[in-house]
């Protein structure tokens, strides 16, 4: 008796087909800094001219938002989330994303579905200016159920050492500016899935599953353009833990952020989730509540920064200020 890898549940031919389907989307993300294509053992990326470059890296996944995607039969958006979660994080230090790699695992590989997932990754890379230089697709029968996929990613960016943003210059009286989120983004879905069991339920004329699957907004291009004109003292990507967990991370010692809840433009999806019985403090400690990214700037720059962001397509607005004290967020 003979036995093959396919008999064990791994279809190599389906893997080759998946790679072929992915290549076109991946190649669109490449630029002159990418020195080799898919198929090499390692990706090569030329950094270009920097005086004193510092590499900034980040890795993350999409989490249980994937279950919503698969129940809705939508495979081409969660890849954007995987990219966004990484590039928005490294952006917080003023770094420009250079390249991205993805990791996808499944129980049984279906080439078309895998290619749709990676097409989302490629779209996220295009939105952030990062090159998709490689990745890994792991077919793991018996470990993942057939039909299940997991996706995560890793990104590297670069910033001049003397331009790193780390909150060290934040001071009393600085202003906190919010950039709106596109929705729930990619955090809190374990709670969402407890609250929402019917993804075909309607919310403002759309299936709530469609609302929940709105991809995480990528802030890279407008923020990098802003940094060419203005000094930004601190930046935070509002992910798991919401404003209370993430905003203090961008503040130096001896100061703390104060956010006025009445100024936050809470999205309808969060009002709906809260109506299911979630206390307000739990909402703010789990979800972004409509604030996807935050900047800290000098009070004297506030109006000009908000105006510039609007010209860049971001409806930014003021939500708070910095005071002396411990680093914990004060929600008033």
From TrEMBL:
Class in the EC hierarchy, top level: ligase
GO biological process: 'de novo' IMP biosynthetic process; adenine biosynthetic process
Positions of the PurM-like N-terminal domain: 54-159
CDD domains the record matches: PurM
Reaction(s) the record says it catalyses: 2-formamido-N(1)-(5-O-phospho-beta-D-ribosyl)acetamidine + ATP = 5-amino-1-(5-phospho-beta-D-ribosyl)imidazole + ADP + phosphate + H(+)
Molecular function GO labels: ATP binding; phosphoribosylamine-glycine ligase activity; phosphoribosylformylglycinamidine cyclo-ligase activity
Residues in PurM-like C-terminal domain copies: 171-327
Keywords, sorted A to Z: ATP-binding, Cytoplasm, Ligase, Nucleotide-binding, Plasmid, Purine biosynthesis
Pathway the protein acts in: Purine metabolism; IMP biosynthesis via de novo pathway; 5-amino-1-(5-phospho-D-ribosyl)imidazole from N(2)-formyl-N(1)-(5-phospho-D-ribosyl)glycinamide: step 2/2
SUPFAM superfamilies, A to Z: PurM C-terminal domain-like, PurM N-terminal domain-like
Its EC number(s): 6.3.3.1
Listed InterPro entries: PurM-like_C_dom, PurM-like_C_sf, PurM-like_N, PurM-like_N_sf, PurM_cligase
One GO CC annotation: cytosol
Subcellular localization, as worded in the UniProt entry: Cytoplasm
Family per similarity comment: Belongs to the AIR synthase family.
PANTHER family: TRIFUNCTIONAL PURINE BIOSYNTHETIC PROTEIN ADENOSINE-3, TRIFUNCTIONAL PURINE BIOSYNTHETIC PROTEIN ADENOSINE-3-RELATED
Name under which the protein is recorded: Phosphoribosylformylglycinamidine cyclo-ligase
Gene transcribed to yield this protein: purM
């Amino acid at each position: 008796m003979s036995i093959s890898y396919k008999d064990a549940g791994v279809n190599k031919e389906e893997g080759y087909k998946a790679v072929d389907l992915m290549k076109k989307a991946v190649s669109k993300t490449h630029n002159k800094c990418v020195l080799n294509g898919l198929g090499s053992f390692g990706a090569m990326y030329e950094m270009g001219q920097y005086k004193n470059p510092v590499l900034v890296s980040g890795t993350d996944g999409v989490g249980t938002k994937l279950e919503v995607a698969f129940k809705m039969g939508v495979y081409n958006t969660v890849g954007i989330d995987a990219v966004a979660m990484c590039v928005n994080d490294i952006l917080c230090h003023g770094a420009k994303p250079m390249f991205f790699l993805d990791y996808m695992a499944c129980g049984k590989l279906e080439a078309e579905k895998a290619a749709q997932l990676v097409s989302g990754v490629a779209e996220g890379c295009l939105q952030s200016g990062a090159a998709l230089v490689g990745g890994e697709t792991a077919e793991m029968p018996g470990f993942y159920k057939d039909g299940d996929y997991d996706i995560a990613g890793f990104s590297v960016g670069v910033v001049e050492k003397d331009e790193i943003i780390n909150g060290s210059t934040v001071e009393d009286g600085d202003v906190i500016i919010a950039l709106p989120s596109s929705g729930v983004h990619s955090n809190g879905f374990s709670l969402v899935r407890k609250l929402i069991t019917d993804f075909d339920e309607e919310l403002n004329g759309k299936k709530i599953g469609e609302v929940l699957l709105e991809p995480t907004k990528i802030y890279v291009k407008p923020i990098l353009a802003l940094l060419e004109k203005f000094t930004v003292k601190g930046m935070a990507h509002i992910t798991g833990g919401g404003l209370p967990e993430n905003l203090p991370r961008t503040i130096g010692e001896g100061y703390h952020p104060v956010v006025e809840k009445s100024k936050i433009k809470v999205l309808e999806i969060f009002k709906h989730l809260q109506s299911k019985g979630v206390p307000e403090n739990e909402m703010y400690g789990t979800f972004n509540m409509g604030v996807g990214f935050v900047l800290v700037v000098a009070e004297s720059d506030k109006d000009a920064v908000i105006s510039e962001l609007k010209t860049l397509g971001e409806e930014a607005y003021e939500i708070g200020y910095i005071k002396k004290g411990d680093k914990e967020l004060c929600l008033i």
